[in-house]
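From the methods appendix. Each design record in this collection lists the tokenized structure first, followed by the designed amino acid sequence. Records were kept in a plain field format so they could be parsed without special tools. The example shown here is representative of the layout used throughout.

RECORD:
FOLD TOKENS (323 positions):
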């Protein structure tokens, strides 16, 4: 703790007379090292990007992702609505890739939704789409391209899950899943469509997107819903954020009429493409079931087969049937 105290004092992130009492891990992060610092006066959170994915150390990841996250918060803090859904940034140390945040207190993410019979409240439905509506209309002309993180995400969304010889043992995740995956890994038309979606994803788009808008990036706090972890953010296409949202609502077994009602609250930017939305939503379902970034799903193999078949039809037909 002495080394950390000296560091925090040097950064002036500790107040006069403030002492560190305890360190703890606030949750299971995927990308970064996260530590809660408790002092004799308050608590705050430190988040450090290291040259790998924290949950999967064998996967390299660009450390400059924290620079992008800091830029994201600085930009959206100019909007009072978006700021209200964000944690307060106390400081950013670019040399050590560390961001300090005000502690949100007792909070938990929304991955509980993947458990059976879990529902998203009406208020949360409104808040989640309100956030995207404001985000996708924000002036983002100065936002960085975020090339390295975009390429990392591209590889693990659009390419890796659909390779037959990728080395991932799907039967270790769920017996029978490997055989079930082959119909999609061997479908040339489907893979070609997904590759086209991936090429579009890499392009620079007109709006700022969060880039990973799923239940693990939403926090239930004493101060209401907060949106975190925007290190995958960049100037892209609004359809990607919406597609990810729809995909995870389906995997969380939310009712289709509820999902449709949620999306009716969204205010899309001009030129919003429902076909692109369908493609991204379908791809997100397939890559989560067949790829590295597994979720705490409670779905049976048959339920996953149903979802994958539906996802493939969305991609190939360019339409989500209940929207």
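DESIGN:
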């Amino acid at each position: 703790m002495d080394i950390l105290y000296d560091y925090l004092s040097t950064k002036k992130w500790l107040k006069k007379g403030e002492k560190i009492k305890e360190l703890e891990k606030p949750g299971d992060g995927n990308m970064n090292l996260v530590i809660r610092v408790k002092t004799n006066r308050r608590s705050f959170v430190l988040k450090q990007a290291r040259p790998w994915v924290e949950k999967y150390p064998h996967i390299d990841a660009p450390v400059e992702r924290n620079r992008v996250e800091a830029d994201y918060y600085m930009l959206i803090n100019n909007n009072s609505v978006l700021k209200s859904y964000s944690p307060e940034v106390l400081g950013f140390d670019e040399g050590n890739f560390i961001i300090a945040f005000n502690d949100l207190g007792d909070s938990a993410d929304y991955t509980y939704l993947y458990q059976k019979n879990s529902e998203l409240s009406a208020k949360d439905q409104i808040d989640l789409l309100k956030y995207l509506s404001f985000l996708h209309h924000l002036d983002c002309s100065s936002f960085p391209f975020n090339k390295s993180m975009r390429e990392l995400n591209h590889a693990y969304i659009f390419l890796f899950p659909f390779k037959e010889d990728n080395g991932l043992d799907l039967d270790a995740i769920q017996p029978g899943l490997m055989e079930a995956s082959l119909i999609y890994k061997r479908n040339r038309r489907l893979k070609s469509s997904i590759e086209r979606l991936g090429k579009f994803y890499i392009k620079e788009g007109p709006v700022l997107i969060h880039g990973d808008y799923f239940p693990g990036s939403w926090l239930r706090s004493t101060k209401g819903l907060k949106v975190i972890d925007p290190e995958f953010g960049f100037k892209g296409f609004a359809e990607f954020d919406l597609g990810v949202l729809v995909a995870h609502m389906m995997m969380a077994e939310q009712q289709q009429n509820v999902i449709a009602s949620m999306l009716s609250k969204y205010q899309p930017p001009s030129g919003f493409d429902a076909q692109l939305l369908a493609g991204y939503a379908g791809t997100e379902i397939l890559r989560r079931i067949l790829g590295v970034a597994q979720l705490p799903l409670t779905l049976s193999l048959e339920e996953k087969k149903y979802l994958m078949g539906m996802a493939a039809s969305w991609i190939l037909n360019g339409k989500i049937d209940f929207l």
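APPENDIX NOTE: The mean pLDDT is 94.
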